[in-house]
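Q&A log
Question type: sequence-to-structure
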Amino acid sequence: MAVAFPPRFFVTGTDTGVGKTYVAALLAAGLGCAYWKPVQSGTDTDTDWVRRTAGLPADRLLPEAYRLREPLSPHEAARREGVAIEMARLALPDRERLVVEGAGGVMVPLNREYLMIDLIVALALPVVVVARSELGTINHTLLTLAQLRRNDCPLLGVVVNGPTNEANCRAIADYGRVDILAAIDRREELSPANVAAVFARYFGAYV
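Response status: OK
Response body:
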């Protein structure tokens, strides 16, 4: 049975660089959602990338609660700038349709007390996990799923990114007891001209 996307959900990943922003951009564009990254580390922001590649209008690109200069873990980037990341500033925006993208994986620290998983729990949104397709993904993905379940986070499924690897997709689905929502080759560059077609190719069955 196909998984229906709710109007608001959270996109996390098994690691940094697995394609969270690519997937979030596809889903925001294809589902007509606003996009929000609560904590951004690095001056080349994911919000700007989503604007350029998915063509989302300005009113669907919500400002980050924290925009930190160094491309590091949020806790370290904030420490270097003398900034304290406060959970109270990470309240969910009042948008009916929204894709929220995390930073790094679920165990990335936000400050000395809270991790990204604590933000996911606080926002209480269903979760899409983005994973790479290559060797090592089974362990990383199963650990991520286990941590989300340990914290009673509702799972929508996993999106696998990278060169086709049907064996790894089957293993994640079987051992993780989770739906594979799509297996994407994100080497295909996105643009405002093709984002709708790419979304339909991978996610059209869920709309």
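Response note: The CA atoms of residues 30 and 197 lie 9 Å apart.
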